[in-house]
């Protein structure tokens, strides 16, 4: 893929026509030269806007600033890919639809189509798609110029790594597999931790009890209830029999109480019958004489009459008590007979109740068994889940260790490829910093994380201004020239890359870009400020200065709105 032309449907817009190979420079000038940061001095003429518009045509997310500040503008980008020319048009007011080679399509479809044109993407690998990979060749904003390995589309260490590994032509499956295993490991660990420590989840499953003990108790209780249930005989008249048994019990108790009373009465009569008068005839006679001295004789009866009365009284008492005893004995016998009959009837009903149950009681037992089984099942699930997670944890950690070994073997195997890439990067860095060690380092990361390799772009010269920019410049050109899995034939750098770069290194950077593009027939596109060109003029030959001028495809200024990219004055933050 190489850029041909950026245009708009407004006559005021200043089209950008890129050279098919070599350098293509967009230069920003300023009428009032000021001291200070050159980026700030030259902002607003449209250099960075050109990059944003190229991204816009190549399927970036919706840009609200475009819709608000320049509504209904349509921008078009022509580009060549593997010998075929294509055109993409996109309207600022209808950004969800693009036109690719005359055919309308959604953004998602455009991105998928461009991915097939520009990259050889493997299937089923997360993190590899057109837009994030494009940023490696077409850095856009400030965040894209912080690290050589990182662009603003990289939202995680995994994404940063797998995109670099992919473009370097290394094994992305190793990177993806470690990320997958680590995600699985973290999911198992988090779930296991939640299961063990989360009070709500643990209370739900176990009521905060020991699983093994509680499960054993529940299983014993279930077995006991099921055995009882099997021996139950459901009786439709259970409650009627139960009422009759209760009535019999009450009646039987009353009879027993009456029998006790009768028995006590008989015993009392027996005691009374055993009692005899202890007054002898002599005592009666003595008493009679004493009475005779106190009363007149005619008032007292004769002794014989008194004794006869006493005998008669005793005989009557014995007769009466004997008769009462016989009556009580008959009643007691009747009560005993009734007690035996009632007791037999009660025993029969009690036996019936003992071997039978009411239907609702039977159902209640069944419900209790079901409830206990549900609790036991939850506990068994809890236990099984813990065991399964323990197995999965061990299996996953084992797989991660196997991946460490596989990665070590892979690193030993790909030394030639790493040497090739490193040779390109070192060759570029030596032209900027001849005395500084440099290289791309790739080491196995065996930690429990999603990063398979520790990957770094190094130029060991931290004291020099612009060293980070040099890393970015050299690395991007390494991907362009020695990278794999892509069909991108351009690198586009914003002027911010050159702001802190020493003028000598800046001049050398453009010589490097000239040489590479001439040798490989690719594009190096950059935006520059006038002062950045002026600053390196002393380090360029006459021919090289002419080269810069000849390859300036667009010069922007601020003396009038017509000199800016849009050709009109617009305040816009994008």
From TrEMBL:
Classification via Pfam families: DUF2326
Gene3D superfamilies associated with the record: P-loop containing nucleotide triphosphate hydrolases (3.40.50.300)
Keyword annotations of the record: Coiled coil
Residues of the DUF2326 domain: 429-569
Coiled coil feature spans: 178-272, 311-345
Name of the protein: DUF2326 domain-containing protein
């Amino acid at each position: 893929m190489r850029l041909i032309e950026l245009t708009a449907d407004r006559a005021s817009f200043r089209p950008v026509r890129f050279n098919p190979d070599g350098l293509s420079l967009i230069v920003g000038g300023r009428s009032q030269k000021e001291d200070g940061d050159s980026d700030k001095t030259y902002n607003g003429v449209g250099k960075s806007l050109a990059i944003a518009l190229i991204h816009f045509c190549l399927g970036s997310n919706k840009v609200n600033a475009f819709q608000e500040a320049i509504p209904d503008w349509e921008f078009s980008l022509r580009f060549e890919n593997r010998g075929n020319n294509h055109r993409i048009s996109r309207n600022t007011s209808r950004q969800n639809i693009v036109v690719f080679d005359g055919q309308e399509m959604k953004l998602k479809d455009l991105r998928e189509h461009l991915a097939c044109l520009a990259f050889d993407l493997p299937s089923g690998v997360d993190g590899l798609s057109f837009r994030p990979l494009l940023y490696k060749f077409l850095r856009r904003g400030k965040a894209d110029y912080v690290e050589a390995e990182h662009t603003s589309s990289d939202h995680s260490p995994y994404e940063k790594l797998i995109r670099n590994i992919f473009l370097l032509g290394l094994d992305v499956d190793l990177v993806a597999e470690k990320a997958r295993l680590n995600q699985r490991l973290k999911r198992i660990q988090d779930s296991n931790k939640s299961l063990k420590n989360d009070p709500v989840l643990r209370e739900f499953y176990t009521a905060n009890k020991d699983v093994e003990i509680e499960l054993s108790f529940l299983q014993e209780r279930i077995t006991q209830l099921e055995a009882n249930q099997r021996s139950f005989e459901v009786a439709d008249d259970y409650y009627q029999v139960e009422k009759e048994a209760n009535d019999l019990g009450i009646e039987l108790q009353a009879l027993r109480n009456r029998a006790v009373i009768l028995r006590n009465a008989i015993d009392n009569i027996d005691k009374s019958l055993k009692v005899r008068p202890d007054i002898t005839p002599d005592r009666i006679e003595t008493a009679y004489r004493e009475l005779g001295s106190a009363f007149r004789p005619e008032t007292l009866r004769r002794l014989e009459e008194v004794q006869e009365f006493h005998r008669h009284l005793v005989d009557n008492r014995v007769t009466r008590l004997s008769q009462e005893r016989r009556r009580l004995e008959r009643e007691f016998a009747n009560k005993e007979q009734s007690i035996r009959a009632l007791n037999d009837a009660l025993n029969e009903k009690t036996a019936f109740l003992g071997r039978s149950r009411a239907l609702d009681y039977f159902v209640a037992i069944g419900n209790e068994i079901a409830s206990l089984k549900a609790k036991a099942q939850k506990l068994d699930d809890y236990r099984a889940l813990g065991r399964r997670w323990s197995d999965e944890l061990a299996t996953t950690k084992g797989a991660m260790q196997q991946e460490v070994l596989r990665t070590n073997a892979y690193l030993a195997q790909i030394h030639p490829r790493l040497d090739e890439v490193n040779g390109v990067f070192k060759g570029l860095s030596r032209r900027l910093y001849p005395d500084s060690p440099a290289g791309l380092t790739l080491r196995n990361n065996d930690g429990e994380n999603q990063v398979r390799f520790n990957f770094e772009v190094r130029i060991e010269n931290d004291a020099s201004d612009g060293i980070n920019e040099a890393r970015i410049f050299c690395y991007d050109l390494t991907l362009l020239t020695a990278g794999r899995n892509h069909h991108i034939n351009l690198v586009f750098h914003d002027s911010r890359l050159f702001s802190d770069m020493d003028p000598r290194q800046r001049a050398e950077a453009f010589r490097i870009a000239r040489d590479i593009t001439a040798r490989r027939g690719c594009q190096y596109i950059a935006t520059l400020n006038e002062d950045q060109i002026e600053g390196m003029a002393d380090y360029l030959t006459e021919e090289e200065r002419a080269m810069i001028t000849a390859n300036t495809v667009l010069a922007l200024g601020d003396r009038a709105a017509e000199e800016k990219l849009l050709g009109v004055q617009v305040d816009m933050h994008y």
